[in-house]
Amino acid sequence: MKENEPAKGVWPPAATPFHADLSIDFERYIAHCSGLLADGAHGLAVLGTTSEANSLDQGEREAVLERLIAAGIAAENLLPGTGTPSIGDTVRLTRHAASLGVRGVLLLPPFYYKGVSEDGLFAFVSEVIGRVGRSNLKIYLYNFPQMSGIAWSPALVGHLIKSFPKTVVGLKDSSGDVAYLNRLLESYPGFAVFPSSEALLLAAMRKGAAGCISASANTQAGAIRALYDGWQGAEAESLSRAASAVRNLMQKFPLIAAVKAVLAERTKSPDWARVRPPLDPLSPAQRKELSAELSNLAAGAPA
Amino acid sequence: MKENEPAKGVWPPAATPFHADLSIDFERYIAHCSGLLADGAHGLAVLGTTSEANSLDQGEREAVLERLIAAGIAAENLLPGTGTPSIGDTVRLTRHAASLGVRGVLLLPPFYYKGVSEDGLFAFVSEVIGRVGRSNLKIYLYNFPQMSGIAWSPALVGHLIKSFPKTVVGLKDSSGDVAYLNRLLESYPGFAVFPSSEALLLAAMRKGAAGCISASANTQAGAIRALYDGWQGAEAESLSRAASAVRNLMQKFPLIAAVKAVLAERTKSPDWARVRPPLDPLSPAQRKELSAELSNLAAGAPA
Lengths: 303, 303
Fold this sequence. Notes:
2 copies of one chain form a homodimer.
Chain A: E1 9-10, H1 26-38, H2 58-70, H3 87-99, E2 105-107, H4 118-132, E3 139-143, H5 145-148, H6 154-163, E4 168-173, H7 178-187, E5 192-195, H8 201-206, E6 211-212, H9 217-229, H10 236-250, H11 255-267, H12 284-298
Parallel strand pairs in A: 1-6, 2-3, 3-4, 4-5
Helix pairs in contact in A: 2-3, 3-4, 9-10, 10-12
């Protein structure tokens, strides 16, 4: 892929493992990221919600990118989150990521604020782009109003595409709002839209989606890649059903904790289950239930 | 006041003026802060919501404290906000503030996250306190669920007071929820509770409040100080009515922009009206309306 092509395909938002003292376990992290790519992920949407990026300090966020690249992961296969409520911190993180040559950045809105105007949000993005000052910067808007309290409305997305056509090139939608997703896909052909769930991927691909950035891709990157590659093939519906069943099961639990619980079980490393406060890990009962239901699913038992 | 006594009285959350390039106008800022103290403020709750603290980058947040202290404002008269969604960034800002000798810090919950458990929030505060590692640290919880998406519930406040009796010593309540405020005042005598509005101050003082931390104190610190000093006197009701009328008028507008518009008019410095995106300044029509209504109020016209 050329650096300036928009991202496409399966970009898992890699979960971040922690040591007992809550510091990042880089060895485990790099192994996980490399494994996702080996399983078929096209790239990694690191430092998003599933990565607990907003629980990392700024130095850690920079270190994550530097360590992955030093470990041999191509910068063009990284799509890190860099959005904060502050223009200055966002510019610092975005400039750092861009200087490393990442494919682009995922931009949360300034999420402390609520009820802000579209003009205010436009001004925020405009200031960030101007201050980063790199002509090859690529921004993917990150829409997750349930967490950020601010949505990127379709009208504002259109305004940003029109004003910054070479920079604002895509959007990850974690809202789960299919009408919103479809409206973006229909309104802005060529704009790289990623639903946040493999359960929405097939229908979205048929409307022109770029791929998906899904938390549960941390546990089934290969299955999602098969669906992405085969969405026009004879197996598309059955690939979609299988991947969706896993996703739908996992999201009955707190999703980040569930992803980490599955990784802990699969790697026989209880440390994987650790999250940073204020998040909680799954309870033992939840872990047991999730594990049993996933086993049933794998054994082909009725859901 | 001794350094370790809990804060009491009128602590305006000082607004932060910006130059045209959006950098902090320190000269104007220091003049404003000094003026508030000269008008009768007991101290300054800098780096809160009204200060647009979450629109400042981390270096600016540290610089604000250093510059105020260098300008001669006593550290013990400062109560800066230091809460972020990340334990690491919060520890860094809190440690920096504590090392300068501030009276205490105002702690927002980890506001990116929504729907987190009380155990998770307790663990967050506990990690921050442990990692800051200063026995003289004083924390004032900052409750503003409309903006942060997370409330400090009375049960959790009680748990924190019991667990960290020398550290968790107060709370600023910006919720506007009088039942919540009263519940804290009744449940935790001696805990320093500050409503965020002078319109609630008199009733709250009668129930044992510590004072108030109000955005509109940026424009009427003296009037609020008079109310605070006179809450048991013959003039209490009329002082409360006068201060409340100004507050109630201002909060019909976006409050931060309104505070800055009043300061701009009063100092004949249009620059004061500037806010950082995503916030918007008042429109010319709003400024005119606010100005006219404040003049009417000052002239004693019926509200």
